[in-house]
Input
Amino acid sequence: MRAELVLFGKRIDMAQRARRRALVVVLYAGLIALMAILWPTTHLRGTGGYMLYAVIAVCWLFLGGITPRGLVKPFNGKAPRMQTKTNPFIGLRLQVFPPILPGDEGEFRNDERELHQRDRAHYQAYQGVGMAVAVVMVLAMIRSMKPEWRTWPGVGSDELYFGIFLGLAVLMMTLPQAILLWTEPDMEEFPE
Amino acid sequence: MISTAVRPFGLSLALRTTRRWLVVGYWLLVALLFVLMELDESKALRRGHGLQPLFPLQVLVFVPALLGGVKVGGPVKPFRGAHWVPQLERQEIQTLFSKKEPILQDADLDERETLQRDRVHFFAYTAARWMAIGLLAIFCLVAAWNPAWSVRFGSASFYLLVLTLWSLPQSILLWTEPDMEVEE
Output
């Protein structure tokens, strides 16, 4: 895991666990708020794609894991393709695509301890997602047994399934990184 | 990670080939039950009655437990360990009318098994993530093409996802673990 978050060229110290936890809370609150805003407009149907874009942006800028940038190193341990030149328009102004030079591969590789942490976080996330889908499944079955409940919560079954799939995809793309950021203790500062 | 005390149909699971056949048989059973449920749902839609939703509930409770992991007594040791002795009693048909003996070796995972369990869950999670995103994309396409099919597709694919989530790590473990030495 990285101790610094590089956001638009500015370095933010994230060595303290309290800061990382606050970031996780803010990110999930933001995603829930986005879902709540999109729901009444098109019942997620037309705007669900924007949620996925938002999750990819969140992973790219903050969480990492499934993207090369962010606090958590890439889970697959691979560096992105060499990019010695920055994009002249976006890269230079926003500094969200810093160049990747030949000596930077080590920054993307997980050591033995980090691999164990990654696997443990995935195990915990898997347990959480497994329990979540089981609860949803039981609720769906109860709903199908009681015909009067089929109109609850006021949305069609297809929209409900769409919401479930979207929520599940969002959770599966972000949960292991969130667990890692939440549980990793404060990082030690190296003496200068 | 794999319990040598459990012998489904009297077969030893020490050989990887046997375990792979077990995994293939398990997924064929899942596929068969899935087809039966879809046929039952078609009947329920036509006649207004069927086995729904009791059949899927029974499948969800009993089928993933066949491979273990989520429950004591399967080929894979319970992922979370078992700390309640009655849970460790054998539940095989062969011991139905005889004295039940606890499978004490399945109670806890050692260091190596814990690391192996976590590693397998990483691969299973990665696969399940792509599956969830893929199902979401296919659901969107189905809903755009023919909205009447979206509910049917949604329920079937969600059910398949739940079964996969509950069985994938055990299947990967049984498939990949090399041959074990048989204790005399």
About this structure: The CA atoms of residues 9 and 93 of chain B lie 9 Å apart.
